Amino acid sequence: MKLLLVLLSAGIVFGSCSKAIEFDLPEVEQDVVLVGKIESSNYPIVFLSKTQGYFEPTSTESIFGTSIHNANVTMNDGVNEITLNELCSADIQDSLLPLVSKVTGIPEQSLQFFNYCIYTSLDPLAIGIEGRTYSLYIETETDTLTASTILPVGVPLVNTRFEAFESLDSLGFLFGTLVDPPEEGNGYRWFAQRINSYKYNYPAPYDNVVGMQKDAFPIAPFGSVFDDKFLNGLSLEIEYNRGEVGNLEGPDDEGPEEGYFKRGDTVVIKFTTIDYLTYLHLRALEDQAATNGSPFASPGNLPSSIVGGIGLWAGYGVRLDTVICN
Amino acid sequence: MQYDITDRWNVGFAFVYATGSAITLPEKRYFDPIENRLITVWSDRNAYRLPSYHRADISITFNGKGFKTIKNLETGEIEKKKKKVVSTWNFSVFNLYNRKNPYFLFFDYSGDVNSGNLDVGANQVSLFPILPSITWNFKF
Fold first, then answer.
1. Taking all residues of chain B, what is their mean pLDDT, rounded to a whole number?
2. Which range of residues forms the domain containing residue B112?
3. What's the CATH code of the domain at A59?
4. Total domains present in chain B
5. Which residues are within 8 A (CB) of A326 and not within 5 positions of it... i.e. 6 or more apart?
6. Across the interface, which of A18, A60, A285 has its CB nearest the CB of B113?
7. Contact between chains at B30 and A52 (C-beta distance less than 8 A)
8. How much is the pTM?
């Protein structure tokens, strides 16, 4: 019955008239956006920007023009108070961009061509320590924001492995077993990064990728976020396909290898533990991304715990595991 | 409105108007560089209204005769005899001026900031355009 209703609805949509329209929405007050993370044994990264009207120009100048500069950003972990300073990719040597790409998750070419500005600190005291609560206090020219997140103790996966599908010979997914701790409210997020290089080229424009590392940074596939609501204190075998960087396809993100890991790949699984508020935000983000363009999508804003703004300040308890796919 | 031109011809006209349905619209957006995604910030629920709904319909109905004339062979007189099956023809046009009334809206974005081809858009789905129809009714 449900399938019939879906088919009927789809028939109405595709059989009826659909056209692109333009809007002239009234001006609304824009929000300050804080997007940032702190991971185990890694430096904090904070991006500050402003929202813009949904139908404003989508040029890179327009998007990057919303960055907030010269803000006062301080981070407190209950022991130390550290100032995060603004650092822009245009001011970073090209030789350091691969490292910045790995830490931030922004493609190296993007760091080269566009001026990404982050607030961070290279003070060793700023490195994330599990179990601590990290609070941010931010002052811009016109606004004040506060945010807080827990950097949970990472929960490792066991028995991580690659399994090829019988029908696909050399392509498959990655598997692992999670043993959830007894306390409720744990959230998790899976990332994976192929650190081996391409051995052959693909059709244009990817006809010159031999020798290039397959993934520059860990990538989270759709459905990478879950919590322990239904598995608290239990063991669960999980499996994941290979994700893509949002809306940015790589050489093997189209065609038969899309979504699969391959025999011969060396994959670093980055399994992270997150707090419940971070889980709610990321789950809503994945829902919004998955239903982009769907006529049946429901409007819903991403939950945010940031006071004075919107966005996410997330702590990730990281456990790494290397799997050789053979 | 309906009007009998003759006892066999009838015309009708209808005009429907309704305030547009309440709708939640994407008001703002921001780019999340860590997730490499454009994030939509929606308005308060039902903060806006769709354009109003209106359409005009017309119809013309031709009623068949309810009787037939026959000649009484005995008396030679013309008599009226009730038909067993009586039919009518109706010619109508729904949504006479082909207004694209919005049924619902949906929004999407495509492309990527890093590739410089990001695009956001809004789409409107309408149900019924101008719909002429011919109907034959019969009763027995």
1. 89
2. 2-66+81-139
3. 2.60.40
4. 1
5. A162, A263, A264
6. A60
7. yes
8. 0.85
